[in-house]
Structure formats: C-alpha cells, structure tokens
Amino acid sequence: MPSDHTSLGGPGLSSPLPLLNFDVFRVILTWLPHTALLRTSLASHHTRDEATKELLMRPVRILRVAKLRSFYRFMLNGDLNRPSYLRQLTLAHMEGPLEWGDVDALLRLFALCTNLNKLALQWCDVLFQESDIPPVISALPSLRHFSAWTYRDGHELQSILIREVINMRASLRSLRLPLVSEALATTDIFALLATTHNQLESLTIQLSVSLPSGVVFPSVRILHLIFEDGLPTLQEIDQTFPHVKELSLDCYAPLDDLPHIDTSRRVLPHPSSWHSLDHLRASMHVIRTLGIACPVRNLDLSFYDRDEHNQMADTIARLRPQKLATSLHCAPDWLIPCADPHLLLYESGEAGVKHLFVRMSYSRSNEPQTQDVIKTLQPLLQTSRVELFHLAISGFFTSDDPEEIVNPPIMLYPDSPDTDASPHVDTDVVARSAAELGTYIRTVAITIVFLGHMVWSVDRLDGEVVMSKLRAFEGAQTLDREAKRYQDH
C-alpha cells in the first residue's frame, strides 16, 4: 500500500522535497488542467496512479476506432479498477467494421464501468450492429445520462436504440434520442419512455413528425426539440412538457411562408402555461412562428441576421432577457450589426440586456484582425446596459464551454497545425475597447480557440477605465460569480 505521504523529489535533485500528504495532493490534482495532469503522471509511480485516476474521473472523449482500441487496452491491462473510475465517456465517429476481439474487449470494459454516470455515443452506428453491445449498455448500473447521434436515420437502427433505452437498468435523468422514423415516433413509444424513465429531467428528441398527443413528461425541465419537417403548435409542446424551464428548438424546414403570431395582442390564440423560461434557444423565426411571449431570463437567438434586425430587436424587447447570446461572422467585408433600434435595450431604453455572450466565427481564408472585431462589436456595446461581456472567437462552436472552445473536440483545420489556427487578435486592445464602448461593463471575458481564456475586471476612476487582467483561477471564479448574478434575478 502506498504511504499517506509522497515525495515530489526526483533523480535529478540533490535532496528530496518535503513529503506531501496524499489527501492534499489529490485536492491539488482536481484543480490542474489536463496538460499539467499528464506531466504530473510522469513524476513517480504514486503520482502516475493518482493523476490517472483524476484524468479518468473527468470527461473522457475517444475519437475513432483506432483510439478506442488503445483506450480499452489501457483500461483492461494492469489495474482493473480503472474502469470503475470512469464517470463520463463519449465515443465519437466509430466508422468501419470492428476487428476480432474488439467486441469482447468492449463487453468486458462496459461490465467494469460500474460508476459510469454519463455515456454519449456520437455517430457510433457500428456499435449497434453488434447484438451483444446494446444489452451491456442497458445494464450499466449507475447510468443517469445517455445520448446517441447516428449517421443513418434508418428504422432498424433507431429500433435498437429505443429498445436499449427502454430496457435500461437505471432510471435516466437526461436522454438524447433520434426518432426520425415516423413508424417509431408514436404515442406508444413516447408512453413507454415516459413511464420507464419517469424521473427524466432533460430530454432531446429529433423528430420528422409532430409530437404525438396524449403523453405527458411531467418531470422534464430541460427540453430540446429538433424538427425535420415543420413545427408543432406551442400548445402541443406545452401539453406534452408542461413544466419546462429551459427550451431549445431547431427546425430544418423553411418557415418563411408560415405566419407569425402577433405577440403584442392581449389574448394569444394558444397561450402556454409557462409563466417564464429560464433559458430559450431558438431562431427568431421559430420564436415568432410559435408566438412565444413569456419572459425569458437567458435568450440565445442563434445567428444575428442584419436583414431581420428590427424583428430581432422587437423580439428581445418583448422577452426582456437578462442574458443574450448570439453568433456573428467577422470578416473585413462582413456587414456589421445595425445600431438603431438598439438590439440590447428594451422599449423605453431604461433597461436592457445585462450579460452579453457573442460567439464570433470566421473563415480560415479570412481571419479577423483586431480592428475588425472592435468594429463588429461597436453597435452592440455602445450605449448598452451590458455589465458582463463575454466574447468567444473560433472557426465554429461545438459548445459554449470555454475549455471546449479553446481545445475543440473536433479538428477545425485538419491540414494545418493547431498553433496556426488561432486568429491574431490583440485581446488586451479588444477588452479595453469593449469596456470603453460599454460604459456599464464591469467584467470582460475573451475566449479564443487554441489561444486561451482571459478575464478582466473593469474599474472606472474619475471617468478613466482601469483594466485588471485576472489570473486563470481568479478569472474563472469571477466570471462564474458574475454570470450567476443574472441567472438569479
């Protein structure tokens, strides 16, 4: 058994460093970034074991079959406790047939993942073609969160997925499932999901048809609906999910020909029972087509469209969000947002958005320069009431998590080194310009792909802007604290 203390000394040191209590050492490991943990694992046998355990208890993402083979060999050779450390596992882009021995190894691995809490299978159709794998996934005892994306939308593959979910040993708290096959998006299937996983709090479903009637998911609070062909009515969504607080809607069908509901009327044709939403993510067209009119604390309007500026300003003023997130494309020839009417102020101009999160994308052939970024932001920040401003810059976004923006799970530019993929933007100049444009701003955060995540506090002394760049830990705490201010109001 290892001692309760370990020395951090090494062969190159003339005298060992003081012993460090293992409990303290483990706490320190929880705060280290991924690269620092990897370096720590090289220091000694004991630090390798502890760092490996910490790495496995963090989200693990395995991309493609070759990496999967290396992963299961590492997990099954040596310490067989390793699989029990896994908490969150994502397998992605598993293409091509599995080789001899792969299935047996995966069955052994899943059987040992007794504490696996979250499993995401992203485009792993090949795993579902092996008849022994879905049952062992269904038997995972601690699974609470399951999601699946598939390359194909075939009836047979989706039938396997539904059977796997309905037969799960554990009751799920969150589920993501494609139900594109019309033969499967039935009242009976929905009723089985609602009864089998009656503690479901978060649900993402992709549908090619409207919602079946007569089924209620009373515990779902976080809902993401993806519609292939058209939209249901707001009343249908409300009746199926009456207690939703966070709503995301995607529709792949064109909505230009559908009439918008006039939300300025005192009585709406199909009002929802939602008194308010904590979060709403949808395009402006979807919001206006459904007639969503309740107050929204956190609004994500997807891409900003200059041609729809007036309608977007009207939608924001009616929903009155504390936080607004939107995406802009930045290039020298790109049309910058309109300044009037102001997108972030409500009708009277006395109140408006307090927390602004801008995702700024760009093309590899036309990277934004510092002045391009500032010019694009100027109409949004000038005369606004924004107090917390967060800018993220990347070629594309897989999530809003700063760590995933800086180190994307998918290669942005496979033919270019990662170090060359970061745009050349002077973050200090952009942060100061943002604080000078937005006279209410107290905190600025900038996250740039492959470059890093930076946070500044802003003080205003005698009319002069004083910027203080925060260290990584302090900056993360400050951003989290300031963001929560607007979630709680």
Describe what this molecule looks like in 3D:
The chain has 489 residues and is α/β, with parallel strands linked by helices. It is 32% helix and 21% strand. It has helices at residues 22-31, 34-40, 45-57, 65-76, 82-85, 102-112, 125-128, 133-138, 155-166, 187-196, 234-240, 284-290, 309-319, 370-381, 402-406, 427-437, 472-487, and strands at 5-7, 19-21, 60-63, 88-92, 118-122, 145-149, 174-179, 202-207, 222-227, 246-251, 277-281, 296-303, 323-329, 355-361, 388-394, 443-448, 452-461, 464-469. Residues 6-17 and 265-270 have low confidence and may be disordered.
Helix content: 25-40%
Poorly predicted regions: 6-17, 265-270
Q: What is the CA-CA span between the terminal residues?
A: 51 Å
Strand ordering within the main sheet: 3-4-5-6-7-8-9-10-11-12-13-14-15-16-17-18
The class by helix and strand makeup works out as alpha/beta
Number of helices: 17
Find the count of extended strands (DSSP E, 2+ residues). 18
| Spatial extent as radius of gyration | 25 Å
Question: How would you sum up the global shape?
Answer: globular
Mean pLDDT across every amino acid position: 84
Biggest beta sheet summary? 16 strands, mixed
Q: Proportion of β residues? A: 15-25%
How would the blueprint of this fold be written?
Layout: E1 5-7, E2 19-21, H1 22-31, H2 34-40, H3 45-57, E3 60-63, H4 65-76, H5 82-85, E4 88-92, H6 102-112, E5 118-122, H7 125-128, H8 133-138, E6 145-149, H9 155-166, E7 174-179, H10 187-196, E8 202-207, E9 222-227, H11 234-240, E10 246-251, E11 277-281, H12 284-290, E12 296-303, H13 309-319, E13 323-329, E14 355-361, H14 370-381, E15 388-394, H15 402-406, H16 427-437, E16 443-448, E17 452-461, E18 464-469, H17 472-487
Parallel strand pairs: 3-4, 4-5, 5-6, 6-7, 7-8, 8-9, 9-10, 10-11, 11-12, 12-13, 13-14, 14-15, 15-16
Antiparallel strand pairs: 1-2, 16-17, 17-18
Helix pairs in contact: 2-3, 4-6, 14-16
